[in-house]
Amino acid sequence: MTMAMAMMTMACNGQDAKANSSGEDSAKADSATELTILFAGDLMQHEAQIKAAMQADGTYSYEGVFDYVKPKIEQADLAIANFEVTLGGKPYKGYPQFCAPDEYLDAAVKAGFDVLVTANNHSVDTYGRGINRTITLMDSIGIPHLGTYRNAKEREQLYPFLIERNGITIALLNFTYGTNGLKVPAPYIVNLENREEILRDIKKAKAMHPDVIIAIPHWGIEYVQQPNKQQRELAQWMLDNGVDHVIGGHPHVIQPFEVVDNKGKKSLVVYSLGNYISNMTRPNTDGGAMVTMKLRKENGKTSLVDTGYSLVWTSRPALSGKKQFRLYPADYPADSLNATERVKRQKFLDDNRRLLQQFNKEVGEIEN
Length: 368
Hints:
Layout: E1 9-11, H1 23-27, E2 33-43, H2 47-53, H3 70-75, E3 78-83, H4 102-110, E4 115-117, H5 127-141, E5 145-146, E6 148-149, H6 152-158, E7 161-165, E8 168-176, E9 189-190, H7 195-207, E10 212-218, H8 229-240, E11 245-247, E12 254-262, E13 265-273, E14 275-277, E15 287-298, E16 301-315, H9 317-320, E17 326-329, H10 339-359, E18 364-365
Parallel strand pairs: 2-3, 2-14, 3-4, 4-5, 8-10, 10-11, 11-13, 16-18
Antiparallel strand pairs: 1-7, 2-15, 6-9, 7-8, 12-13, 15-16, 16-17
């Protein structure tokens, strides 16, 4: 069964996540249930990606971009990614102020992502119209999202974001260190890295009685493959105050993943998933990671029972000689790529496997 077919109950638009109250479910109340969550890094749209997607009739198509990673995304019960562009409408632009075609959102949803986070340093790239239009378009196609809001009332109603799958309820938090110096226009709200506010949000999340609280911060130093002191301190502070897992991004490169002891239970801390798809060419920016965690709920207690990562690499027209960008998982057959692509992908895989094998703690690579 695909994720699109899976049952999902959200605490949004004033609705609370509710458990099925049938007699059959009551009988299973004390039985174990499991939930697999997949996290992906930055979904970006640089100028070259927009040009590659443009069709002769002026429309945009992302057909084929996610084809080879879609099966992996759909294996998870819940898939979450960082949507690091705005949907501000034409004219479309890449760096430094991203404004992607509407079709890019459709492509991300068709790829299998269930939730998109929108608080990042590019949230204000197309100002108030971009924040508003991005929210409107996501709502119009029914893709859950969190991180940016039209006003304080909307944020109060919808945040923290609550979602239920397989009888396990998750509260999600998302915030960014900043917005590239662009002021957030009133009355719009972008969740920012403010400890007083984060603490209030954690307390509010706890009051919702979720099984798990997961924070998704946008933090760290670009292009640096080790977390800095501030990341480590903030991660520990969130764990100390009730967050169960931390899944970070922003540096555009992978930073290590680790399972740590959190008051006698296991917590996953991901410092950076890197880019998921982009046109970036600096070392280690041409790919990223998907991290999967398996939660198990038994007798009212939810714990992390397994976690792992898989690498992805982006081929671009300049390498493939084809029109479109395309994501390739690490296990995609090398002989299906041309010689240039094989060399580029293998270097990315080798360099990042060395990094993660050296610095990861209890998070190994998923085979196949």
